[in-house]
Structures are given as C-alpha cells and as structure tokens.
Write a structure and sequence with these properties.
The chain is an alpha+beta fold and about 140 residues long. It has five helices and five strands; from the N terminus they run αββαβαββαα. It has a single domain, classed as Cytidine Deaminase, domain 2, CATH 3.40.140.10.
Amino acid sequence: MSLVDAAREARLRAHAPYSGFRVGAAVQSADGTVFHGCNVEISSYSHTCCAERVAVFKAVSEGHTELVACAVMTDVSPPATPCGACRQVLHDFGPDMVMLLANLDGECVEMPLKALLPDAFTPAQVLEKIKARHGGA
C-alpha cells in the first residue's frame, strides 16, 4: 500500500462531526514503517487533534523518531496543506521529509516540507538556550 493510500484509508476513520472536514495522514519512518492517523474533533474544539499530529505521535510512541515522508488526504482541490502546528511537529521529526498532498480526485502534489515551513524553529535552538542557561553543561 502506498503512503497516499494509507492516508486515504485513515481518512475514512476521521471523527469530524463539527466541521465535516475529514483528513487522513500517513507518515513513513526512516526504516520504512508507516503510521497513519485521522483528525479527531471534540466539542471543546481547541483540543481537536489533526491527522498529521496523530500519525506522528503514533510513530513516536512506537519508537520511530526519524520520519522521511508524510501523505495528507483531503477532499478539497487543490489538496490541503498541514496547519502551522502540524508543520512544526513534522519538522521536529523530519526536517527533510517529502510531503505528498493528495485529494480524493487523484490530485497529488509532492513538495519538501521545507517549502511549507521555511526558516523553521528547530530543536537545536531550544537545546542551545538550555545549555547557555546552565553554563554549557
């Protein structure tokens, strides 16, 4: 099954009773393992979780912290891109990953994540600040 197909399948499980905007995502780890997720909306809408973050968190919870690709499936044209929060989460676990943005009509746009999040905030920036606060230790 392709990464886009995995995202399409994940979209079927989306829980989007409020927006109706169903999203599926699939991420591939460096060793080729695929993890998928769907968006999950809840009544306290600000606590909703996007499909991309669900997929990444599943990968990380299984010990896969180096991601190389992400597919996102929606039903809009052109295919939707991840939100800003998801872009940052994806970047933390795969700054060089390939993004596959697809829709149910068969459109698929491939681009590097860096095109969606140029000049991203990096984990190294946080670590540098921590080291500076603790005298380089």
